[in-house]
DNA sequence: CTAGGGGTACAC
DNA sequence: GTGTACCCCTAG
């Protein structure tokens, strides 16, 4: 894997700085690692660093309140950091209140460039971005978000991508063509981006869940009798995310200039979701609005002994959309590349594991 | 990570 | 009871 470019490292660090679940020592190590990134490039990064220093000062559980308070005051008075804190923090004279104010500061951190860019592509800004994109940009956006998401976005715009011959050309190009390799390579980037978004929103704030329409039991989704041609993507050339993102950012800028002097592709996606590692939860109905408060990596230990059957997951029937997408994925990536398929359709398969995909396809082969 | 075996739930 | 759907476990 090639070393991270400074610009990419900055984007990652800027996001991580404001992610309170990333432990301070881990973040410090990342900050110290090459390529060097100056925290002064981004208000979020600066403030994240400052809040981490404050967190550290307030985190000694053994120390008395007065000691914590003095440590915190020292941080608040540091010349490099003082401009990052609002005045009322320095005026606060109670540790408990100060901790609450710090929590509020964490919660009010601005979105990172990555999140903001994702939002522009698949989030709230998507309709505007897509509506103003020319053919070339649209094709690149397609490569980034994937077919399912593109359909969703264009659906909102009242458009149909099937009328665009160029898109079809991209989608249907044979696996040996260079165009398709680029497709694959960029879809890899898309996948990475998507995962990043999910994580981002997990921490950031509300994440509007987009359930698939509850289509009842499929009647027409049929698996091809012959196993689908396996189109392995392993070993293909992979474009770096920075190449793709820079190009699209440039194109985006052309078609609709956005705020700031350095618009980025990686904008925030309020619709993306990530799930906590919690075996007991059914993610569909219990997603807190503000997730930034999550304090720790800890996870409920699984009870020992034999596990009662089907207590971990609720049984969820496959929708027609899921089945069709699975078939499409197998046609595209080949049977057996379940991880690739899951990554390629993160929204559709958000609640399906790779094993689920494999099992479902096996059942479809068996019984259809 | 994937394939395959096998258990349980559910509809008929 | 039977067939199917969904899920879990485990070996490679």
UniProtKB/TrEMBL annotation:
Name of the protein in its database record: Uncharacterized protein
């Amino acid at each position: 894997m090639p070393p991270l470019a400074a610009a990419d490292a900055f984007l990652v660090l800027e996001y991580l700085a404001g992610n309170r679940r990333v432990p301070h020592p881990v973040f410090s190590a990342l900050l110290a690692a090459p390529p060097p990134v100056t925290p002064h490039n981004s208000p979020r990064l600066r403030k994240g660093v400052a809040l981490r220093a404050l967190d550290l000062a307030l985190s000694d559980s053994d120390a008395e309140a007065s000691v914590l308070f003095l440590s915190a005051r020292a941080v608040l008075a540091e010349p490099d950091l003082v401009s990052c804190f609002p005045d009322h923090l320095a005026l606060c004279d109670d540790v408990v209140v100060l901790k609450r104010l710090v929590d509020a500061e964490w919660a009010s951190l601005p979105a990172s460039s990555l999140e903001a860019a994702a939002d522009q592509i698949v989030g709230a800004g998507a309709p505007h971005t897509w509506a103003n994109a020319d053919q070339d940009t649209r094709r690149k956006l397609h490569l980034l978000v994937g077919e399912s998401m593109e359909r969703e976005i264009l659906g909102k715009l009242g458009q149909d991508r099937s009328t665009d011959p160029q898109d079809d050309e991209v989608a249907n190009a044979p696996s040996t063509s260079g165009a398709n390799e680029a497709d694959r390579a960029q879809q890899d980037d898309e996948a990475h981006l998507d995962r990043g978004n999910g994580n981002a929103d997990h921490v950031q704030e509300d994440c509007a869940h987009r359930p698939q329409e509850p289509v009842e039991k499929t009647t027409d989704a049929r698996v091809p009798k012959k196993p689908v041609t396996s189109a392995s993507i392993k070993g293909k050339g992979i474009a770096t995310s920075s190449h793709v993102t820079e190009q699209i950012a440039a194109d985006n800028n052309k078609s609709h200039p956005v705020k700031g002097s350095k618009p980025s592709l990686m904008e925030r996606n309020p619709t993306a979701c990530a799930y906590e590692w919690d075996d007991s939860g059914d993610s569909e109905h219990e997603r807190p609005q503000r997730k930034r408060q999550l304090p720790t990596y800890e996870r409920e230990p699984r009870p020992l002994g034999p596990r009662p059957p089907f207590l971990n997951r609720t049984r969820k029937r496959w929708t027609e959309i899921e089945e069709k997408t699975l078939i499409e994925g197998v046609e595209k990536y080949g049977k057996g590349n379940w991880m690739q398929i899951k990554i390629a359709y993160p929204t559709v398969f958000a609640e399906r594991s790779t094993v689920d995909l494999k099992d479902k396809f096996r059942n479809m082969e068996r019984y259809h």
